[in-house]
């Protein structure tokens, strides 16, 4: 490709990308530290238009609300959890969760994710209250509320008629 940028290292990296070559992690770091953001955006747009030639691109904005950081699983990759009983963790109230989601909606969020640690001291009623309140109060978003392993934890809660609730 004909040179459209200067001979600066960041510009050479952008030309490499425009020529269809993948950049390395080190080159990406150079762009982050030294690159002209307008040139980076123009390059990104040109590359997107090669793949998707139509004029418009769409984006989504989402919010992840972590309702608790207490957890008894201790996944090796997690730096988020706090050991149950140490007094440093938190559990958000339904009101706090709604407040965080309301703020995100005001900023343009159209998706909400609700996740957190595996904390056996939280009752099924807590989760049910959160789900009902969120669905009642946040009407403009799509939701991913809790993960599959959480629902398998619920099946072990006393008093929950899991067969009726989970349809199994």
From TrEMBL:
Kindly list the cofactors needed: [4Fe-4S] cluster
A Gene Ontology molecular function term of the record: metal ion binding
Q: Kindly state which keywords UniProt assigns to this record, in alphabetical order.
A: 4Fe-4S, Iron, Iron-sulfur, Metal-binding, S-adenosyl-L-methionine
The residue ranges crossing the membrane are none
Pfam families found in the cross-reference section: Radical_SAM (PF04055)
Q: Which residues form the Radical SAM core domain?
A: 65-140
- The source's domain of life comes to Bacteria
| InterPro entries xrefs | Aldolase_TIM (IPR013785), F420 (IPR034405), rSAM (IPR007197), rSAM_sf (IPR058240)
Q: State whether keyword Transcription regulation applies.
A: no
Specify the protein name. Answer: FO synthase subunit 2 domain protein
Q: Which organism is it from?
A: Leptospira weilii str. Ecochallenge
């Amino acid at each position: 490709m004909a040179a459209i940028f200067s001979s600066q290292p960041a510009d050479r990296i952008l030309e490499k990308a425009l020529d269809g070559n993948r950049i390395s992690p080190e080159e990406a770091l150079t762009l982050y530290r030294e690159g002209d953001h307008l040139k980076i955006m123009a390059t990104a747009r040109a590359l997107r238009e090669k793949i998707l030639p139509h004029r418009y691109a769409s984006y989504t904005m989402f919010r992840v609300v972590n309702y608790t950081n207490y957890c008894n699983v201790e996944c090796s990759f997690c730096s988020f959890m706090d050991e149950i009983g140490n007094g440093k963790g938190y559990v958000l109230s339904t009101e706090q969760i709604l407040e965080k989601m309301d703020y995100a909606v005001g900023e343009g969020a159209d998706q909400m994710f609700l996740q957190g640690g595996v904390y056996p001291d939280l009752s099924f009623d807590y989760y049910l209250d959160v789900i009902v309140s969120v669905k009642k109060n946040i009407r403009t978003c799509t939701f991913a509320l809790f993960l599959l392993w959480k629902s398998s934890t619920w099946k072990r809660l006393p008093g929950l008629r899991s067969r009726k609730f989970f349809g199994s």
